[in-house]
Design a protein that fits this description.
The protein is an all-beta fold and about 130 residues long. Helix content is about 0%, strand content about 50%. It has no helices and 11 strands. Strands 2, 4, 5, 6, 9, 10 and 11 form a 7-stranded mixed beta sheet that branches. A hairpin with a 6-residue loop joins strand 5 and strand 6. The model has no long low-confidence stretch (mean pLDDT about 95).
Length: about 130
């Protein structure tokens, strides 16, 4: 199985940028579709962005589309989430997740992902 470790979170002012990293070990990320989720205080964990196992197709939640970009670097076995034009409502713990099952579409349900990282805190000040 794969182990996932997120990094890159922190405190940033509104309008700023952060890049989150998700380093994988144990298995190559090419074996999985990968996703980013987030959970704000008092709210359920929600899908943010995903990238398919093959082909590089991506999909985003409407709230982040046009501001966030998910990508993968197979050589580094790492998935990234570039976050631009950050807003206070983006404040949350961000989680990386791996989906081992083949699907023709990027899945957005958190129960459809098999492996999770520990999360990294992102705080956006107004």
């Amino acid at each position: 199985q794969v182990q996932l470790v997120e990094s890159g979170g922190g405190l940033v002012e509104a309008g700023g940028s952060l890049r989150l990293s998700c380093a994988a070990s144990g298995r190559t990320i090419g074996s999985y579709a990968m996703g980013w989720f987030r959970q704000a205080p008092g709210k359920e964990r929600e899908f943010v962005a995903g990238i398919r196992k093959t082909g590089g197709n991506t999909y985003y939640a409407g709230s982040v589309r046009g501001r966030f970009t998910i990508s993968r670097d197979s050589a580094k076995n790492t998935v990234y989430l570039q976050m631009n034009s950050l807003k206070p409502e983006d404040t949350a713990v961000y989680y990386c997740a791996a989906d081992r099952n083949f699907s023709p579409v990027i899945r957005v349900g958190l129960y459809e992902y098999d492996y999770w990282g520990q999360g990294t805190q992102v705080t956006v000040s107004s």
